[in-house]
Design goal:
Layout: H1 2-18, E1 22-27, H2 42-54, E2 58-63, H3 66-75, E3 80-85, E4 94-109, H4 117-123, E5 127-130, H5 134-141, E6 149-152, H6 158-163, E7 169-173, H7 174-180, E8 188-189, E9 193-203, H8 208-224, H9 226-234
Parallel strand pairs: 1-2, 1-3, 5-6, 5-7
Antiparallel strand pairs: 3-9, 4-7, 4-8, 4-9
Helix pairs in contact: 2-8, 2-9
Length: 238
């Protein structure tokens, strides 16, 4: 009985140590890249969740507006966020864990498609773009004025703004634009522009073991085809 008294705290300690650690994963509503659904969490959401699980962690998905998701990740320690493009403005704000894949942008419009950012800057009076997104940063760096940008929350329906004539074009990732492409009047898509790598990122203060284990797990998914199967599940057949 006395032996049990000594062993019980040790057993409880070992049990607690064996419990998988829970990691918060922040993401916006930006299908097909990230979404909240019973059927899945989008390309980057599913990829990050699988990588965390393979690395031995539990996942607590936090779905919220994109500016708030970025702010919360920066405020916390050991929190992950997807999908985050690695831009100059963001470089020193996060720990960059692993590149998922390159991501391209395009202008969606009812007019003839443009071939460059400069042509779009000269032609379009008003462009819809996601608030706090890499696309907004790209257009500002390309010389678009504040008055030319119609910032909207991720998850809104900018294609309807284009079709109603409220904006001249929508600048977004080609995957998001194609995902919202429905049976209405045909939209023209510009050339693929501004490629940037799409990352799983972590808070600036991030456990090196967490970074390494998630990085290695994602690269393992790339090698065994699991990552490509996730992409193929969500990319529309157009």
């Amino acid at each position: 009985m006395r032996l049990l008294t000594y062993l019980l705290p040790l057993l409880l300690c070992c049990s607690a140590a064996a419990e998988p650690r829970t990691i918060q994963l922040f993401m916006p509503d930006a299908p097909p890249l990230a979404l909240q659904s019973e059927d899945g969490h989008g390309i980057t959401g599913d990829a990050a969740i699988m990588a965390l699980q393979r690395a031995g962690y539990r996942v607590a998905v936090q779905n919220m507006p994109w500016p708030r998701a970025q702010r919360r990740t920066q405020e916390l320690q050991d929190a992950l966020i997807v999908p985050l493009s690695r831009t100059t403005e963001r470089e020193g704000l996060y720990t960059w864990v692993v590149n998922i894949q390159p991501l391209y942008r395009a202008f969606f419009t009812l007019d003839d498609p443009v071939a460059s950012l400069e042509e779009a800057r000269q032609r379009y009076r008003l462009v819809a773009v996601g608030l706090g997104s890499a696309q907004e940063e790209i257009l500002r760096r390309a010389g678009f004025s504040r008055d030319q940008l119609y910032a909207l929350k991720l998850g809104d329906r900018p294609i309807q703004l284009v079709r109603r004539g409220r904006v001249d074009a929508w600048f977004t990732t080609d995957l998001e634009g194609r995902h919202q492409w429905d049976d209405g009047p045909a939209l023209a898509m510009s050339a693929l522009l501004a490629p940037q790598d799409m990352f799983i990122a972590c808070s600036l203060q991030c456990d090196p073991q967490l970074v390494k284990s998630v990085h290695d797990a994602l690269e393992g998914m790339r090698a065994d085809g699991s990552l490509q199967r996730i992409v193929e599940r969500y990319v529309p057949n157009r």
